[in-house]
Amino acid sequence: MNSSRCAACRHLRRRCPSDCIFSPYFPSHDSKRFRCVHKIYGASNVAKMLQELPADRRAEAADSLYYEAYCRLKDPVYGCVGTITILCQQIHNAQCQLATTQAEIASLSAHSGLQNQYPATPTFNLIDQYDVASANWSDFNLQ
Amino acid sequence: MGGNSPCASCKLLRRRCAKDCIFAPYFPSDDPHKFAIVHKVFGASNISKMLQELQVHQRADAVSSLVYEANARVRDPVYGCVGAISYLQNQVSQLQMQLAVAQAEILCIQMQQQDEPNNYSNINPLLVEADDKSFLFQNNNYNHLMPQYLNFTSSNNDSFSNSNNVIYESLKKESYFGHDMVS
After folding, report:
1. The LOB domain covers which part of the protein (chain B) (predicted)?
2. Which of A74, A99, A129 is the last residue of a domain?
């Protein structure tokens, strides 16, 4: 029955029971997936996290755990938080560019007397800093 | 120095806090919650291994990011930080659209200014088609931030990891590491 073991049980060198918590999400043909999450979180932590979720949410949880573990292995210092940093910076830059562009529109419209012809461009909403777990951004300083 | 109180890690793990304890500089005893949460998600031995594999000057940032990820995971046990990434990705997309509309509007105004005598009053900039918006973005290429890497299937192929590798590597080239996120 060795061939029917999931990737987790193969890695852990144990029998794969019929109700194995890992087997739906760590199939035997993708050993890398389990190795990643095991290296970062450990098998027992992954099992605990999956067990605490309803069955219909576990697939997504396993995917996100894999993604975060993968990012952490690629970037051991910042992991996927590095991606968040980059996205925040991109948002900030885009907001500045949008503000500049809208100011230019206002200026052009005023200059050419077109303000009555073009409807006012909807002003962008200042996008709040993403507040994960109500943590202040100041709590997380990369410097 | 004898008599130093154990760090938060050693207190939680109920062990003697050695002088060279790897956790002590980053998990002071006055903030037990910080270690408790990373221990819950990652486990003390995994944290220790990760820190040992890093150079000393990188460890503080690594601990900060691990604490952040652990908090995100506790708050959202299904998506963790990936929920934040998805949210921010949507924000980037919305801004892209708003920027495209605004830049199209500028073009229309400029066209109208050049051809003042002719009547272009029926042009609505909001309806201007811009199939190829690449010229609008110039140096700001957001394409690599499109959420392909979020389209991971539930389990059964490596395509997720391959596409993610490409996108993740391109993200790294634009790393803003070291910048304070708080403006």
Report:
1. 5-106
2. A74
The answer to whether A42 contacts B168, with C-beta atoms less than 8 Å apart, is: no
Contact A76 B53 (CB under 8 A): yes
Other beta carbons within 10 angstroms of residue B136's beta carbon come to: 18
Chain A residues close to B155, C-beta within 8 Å = 24-27, 30, 33, 59, 62-63
Is A90 found in the same domain as A45? no
What residue ranges do the domains of chain B occupy?
Answer: 8-75, 80-112
Which residues of chain A neighbour B87 with C-beta distances below 8 Å?
A: 130
The reply to whether A20 touches chain B by the CB within 8 Å rule is no
Confidence label for B112 from pLDDT (cuts 50, 70 and 90): confident
Which of chain A's residues have a Cβ under 8 Å away from the Cβ of B64? 140-142
Of B78, B105, B156, the CB nearest to A105: B105
* Domain's final residue, options A48, A74, A100: A74
Once rounded to an integer, what is the mean pLDDT over residues A70-85?
A: 97
Q: What is the pLDDT of residues B31-58, one digit of tens each?
A: 999 999 999 999 999 999 999 999 999 9
